Amino acid sequence: MSNTLKINISSERDTQAFASSLAQYFNEGVLYLIGDLGAGKTTFTRYFLTSLGHDGAVKSPTYTLVEPYQIRGKSVFHFDLYRLNDPYELELMGIRDYLETAHALFIFEWPSKGEDEIPEADLTLEILRTDDETAREITIYSENEALIQHLQEQVYARK
Questions:
Q1: What is the C-alpha to C-alpha distance for residues 146 and 102, in angstroms, rounded to an integer?
Q2: Pick the residue with more confidence: 158 or 147?
Q3: pTM here?
Q4: Distance (Å) of CA 39 to CA 110, 123, 127, 136, 158
Q5: Of the CATH numbers 3.40.190.10, 2.60.120.10, 3.20.20.370, 3.40.50.300, which one belongs to the domain with range 3-158?
Q6: Which of 47, 48, 69, 102 has its CA at 20 to 30 Å from residue 56's CA atom?
Q7: Residue 73 near residue 99, CB atoms below 8 Å
Q8: Are 61 and 80 in contact (CB under 8 A)?
Q9: Where are the domains of the chain?
Q10: What are the tens digits of pLDDT across the range 28-57?
Q11: Any residues with CB less than 8 A from the CB of 24 and at least 6 apart, and which?
């Protein structure tokens, strides 16, 4: 059974702090980002990649489907599957070549559109908008109990 943690983010600064906390303990594997348009998935990714050590722009891969990065010698692939019409398009674009990269980090926005063509998530963030335009509710799912515990400690330390 997956471990779950809910946190509330009240500003972009909180998003940055959360991304930084996560980057300390999660820099390899598969991350799913779930949320409606405008929920903040790409904004979170920008802060997350910066926290991992990326220096430069973080572009949304909405039209290219994937943006690759090399961060401190590690391969990171940011996928945005929103415009995907059929999961088989991932096979045509060579997703297997990306997925064979050892010790890489794979970030998937709109993972449901990838169906069986993408691997299961090690960590899932579901980002929900609230009535307050700057606030978000994030539900975190992971089999990694230690990661959830770390994030929970970080959230309570900020309060």
A1: 23
A2: 147
A3: 0.92
A4: 12, 18, 6, 8, 22
A5: 3.40.50.300
A6: 102
A7: no
A8: yes
A9: 3-158
A10: 999 999 999 888 899 999 999 999 999 988
A11: 51, 150
